Amino acid sequence: MPVVSVGQLTITDVNDGLNLVLSNESHNIPTDAAGNSPVFTGAVSSAKVLAGGTDVTSAWTITVVTSVGLSGIFSANTYTVTGLTTDVGTVDFTATRAGYGELTARFTVAKSKKGDQGNPGLDGLTIVVGNESHTLPANSSGTVSSYANSGTTIRVYEGSVELNAVSGASSNGSFGIGTPTQLPASTITVGATSYSGKVATVAAHSAMVAGTDSVVITFPITIKRANGSVVSTTKSQTLTKSKQGGTGGTGPVGPRGSVHLYKLITGSVWSDAEANSLFGAGLTHGVVRVADRVTLYNNSAGFSQTRAWTGSAWEIQTEVLDGNLLVTKSVTAAAINTADLYAQNVDVTGS
Q: Of 236, 167, 166, 151, which is closest to residue 201 (Cα–Cα)?
């Protein structure tokens, strides 16, 4: 059979690019713990048909089918939920148009039930240790010189109520202290525990070994709450030595004090050169210093004169008095030349 004609056939999906879109696809409905007293605020969904980005809803017919137990109002393509007797319900939207396939979308609602009321909580426990950290004075070898106030006190509160301090925590609303441990072990004698009212008191410790610088004492605490329930816990106290420093090295030699030197000369007048010859590097008194005095004398010529070095010249002294002749407290501070004074221990008193 001969070919009559040749052509091209195009097949088009009329639903291509069409979507049924909901404004709200799911919603939780708050209720009480039993699922009653639902709040339907916001349990609403609207449907529209889009061709690409164009709204073509007016050319379509939209209907809904609800699940069992769900009720509401459907108007202008919008469904508003007003009742729900089951935990979960659905609203199925269907859009139809002649010559096109159906478009469907689902709106789901579910109850959000309030949780059951929990049991009342217990009041918090607060443990107060009066002396959690203590420093012990010790010599350079580590021997403690005083254990005064090295003990501690322990108090316990349940909420705002202070509990009684009782050995063994034998009654409701009380606490007691067990046998303490220490780290490092066997390095100190822990003070004894006593009870009075609401306070457990640990006496001052003693006999810390010289070779240990720090020890942690742990107190086991048994607490019996007001309702009779028992809680076990621990609290610690840290003791640390503060050692005296060792003897330091010898300090540098301080500058010498002023001197009074005498020299026999052959002349009968003062000579700076003769005075200067008594000082200098390598000589007994070293270089000349302010307030150094020199007496040049020549008995045969009847000459004797004393001068003091001012720092720039030898100044004649009108009167020279041997310090050994001074009476205690007879010289005022204003009369003393303190220039270049070096003093290691000074005791100044007045009357």
A: 151
Q: What is the C-alpha separation between 83 and 102, in angstroms, rounded? A: 28
- The phi, psi pair for 57, rounded to 5°, reads -55, -35
Are the beta carbons of 43 and 80 closer than 8 angstroms? yes
**Residue 172: phi, psi to the nearest 5?**
-60, 145
Q: 277 and 285 in contact (C-beta within 8 Å)?
A: no
Helix (H, G, I), strand (E, B) or coil at 24: coil
Contact 133, 200 (CB under 8 A): no
Structure tokens that stand for 66 in this block: 């609800």
Helix (H/G/I), strand (E/B), else coil: 200: strand
Tokens of 304: 């004797």
The C-alpha angle with vertex 117 and arms to 115 and 123, in degrees rounded to 5, equals 130
Chain segment 319-331, per-residue pLDDT in tens: 656 666 667 766 6
**Alpha helices for the chain (secondary structure H):** 272-276
Give yes or no for a contact between 188 and 216, defined as CB atoms under 8 angstroms apart: no
Nearest CA among 231, 220, 221 for reference residue 182: 220
| Cut 0.85: pTM above it | no
Q: Which domains does the chain have, with CATH numbers?
A: 18-113 (2.60.40.1080), 125-243 (2.60.40), 260-320 (no CATH)
Side-chain-side CA neighbours of 4 within 13 Å: the count stands at 0
